[in-house]
Amino acid sequence: MDADLAVTLARNAVYLSLIIATPVLIASIVVGLAISIMQAVTQIQEQTISFVPKVVVMLLVLLITLPWMLNRMVVYS
Q1: Alpha helices in the chain, H assignment, sequence order
Q2: 3: which DSSP letter?
Q3: Can you tell me the distance from the alpha carbon of 2 to that of 63, in angstroms, rounded to the nearest whole number?
Q4: Nearest CA to 55 among 28, 33, 17, 77?
Q5: pLDDT tens digits, 48-57
Q6: What pTM was estimated for this model as a whole?
Q7: Which of 3, 22, 60, 61 is close enough to 27 for a disulfide, judged by CB 3.0 to 4.6 Å?
Q8: Which residues touch 62 (CB under 8 Å, ≥6 apart)?
């Protein structure tokens, strides 16, 4: 294996990991933003309130997109 192939494989691996992580990260950002807006409106400034809904939504998105993620990783490998 030469250096060009190693760099190409590493670059593709990083790109794939970013693509695979995108749905979970977007869901986390959307839920976090919605909870932050709700906390600002109600003036409840408890930081633990946003933790549980984010984790639940991230797990649900992960379960929904898991077949697609596995398919992408198998195709890459």
Answers
A1: 3-42, 51-76
A2: H
A3: 38
A4: 28
A5: 788 899 999 9
A6: 0.80
A7: 61
A8: 24
